[in-house]
Amino acid sequence: MSQPTPFASRRGLLFGAAAVSAGAFLTGCTSNESDDDEPAANDRPAADDKPGKPVTIGFAGPQADHGWLNAINDNAKKRAEKYSDVTLEITEGSNDTAQQIGQIETLINKKVDVLVVLPADGKALTQVGLKAMRAGIPVVNLDRIFNTPQAYRCWIGGDNYGMGLNAGHYIGEKLKGKANAKVIELAGLDNLELTKQRTQGFDDALKNYPNIRKVARQAADFTVESGQAKMAQLLQAQSKFDALWNHDDDQGVGALRAIEQAGRDDFLMVGGAGALSAFEAIKADNGVLKATVLYPPTMAASAIDLARALGQGKGVGGLAEYEIPASITLYSAVVDKENVDQYMSTGFK
After folding, report:
1. Which residues of 169-180 are buried (b: 16+ CB within 10 A; e: fewer)?
2. Mind listing the pLDDT tens digit for each residue in 107-147?
3. What is the pTM of this model?
4. In the chain, how many domains are there?
5. Domain check: are 64 and 110 in the same one?
6. Residue 205 and residue 271 share a domain
């Protein structure tokens, strides 16, 4: 396959508007089979979701120790339940790479039809992805990417660079009329490539706004506790700034606590991921949080659709090709007060 965008990794809702760019067309799968009376591929309507060949999908994800990761598991389960022809074999999930490899090998030995894998560590699990592919089991690599495209048939995931880019543009547009505007950044774990990608996108966007200067950056670790502690440090160090971009809505809960405790309301805040709590705060519009940039866990529902299509030898409804795509990168939409109702049902807890 053509290598997915390099901005393809994520730490470690049912289809809705959050995943429209990647998912709406996946719900109808177009058969590869043809006969003399069948219209050309680009003339065929998308098929509906009528039951087809039974497919057993093995799903292996990391431990759900974070709101977004828990939403990944929920999306996969709920999507599979919508199909009477899908049986989902789901592992317990683990952040221990050796344990997750063992879980995936068990699924391979069970001879599942298709595998969906969100690896705890893409590099470390590449070999087991290769093992599945060589055993004739197509792999849908979810978000954290394996080291080689030979280890998966299809990759689907989020756009970390795009998150930063869209957060930066949103803030830039809000502050473009303000002279000498200052912004700060509450990042995620700095040892993760995704954090660097989000920061790079943010910095690149701000280059379009010469009136804005980033004056501080602090790395947290995607937890409520770290968000609160690191935000408190930023607030102590920066007596005056105009906007904050926080990489993750889970750590944003803690950041908002620190902001409230400090009695600060003199700036706007943009979050990241798409938590229900963030959507509710944006809708209430009675605090600093004005928007969040999506990293939609609906990708797990889309992965189940793709796996089902692979197991049934189908393509994707809405596309002319007979095969599913080699890669799908989700769009990092900005959700603010103007469109939050559209996305509310996709928020994760």
Report:
1. bbbbebbeeeee
2. 999 999 999 999 999 999 999 999 999 999 999 999 999 99
3. 0.83
4. 2
5. yes
6. yes
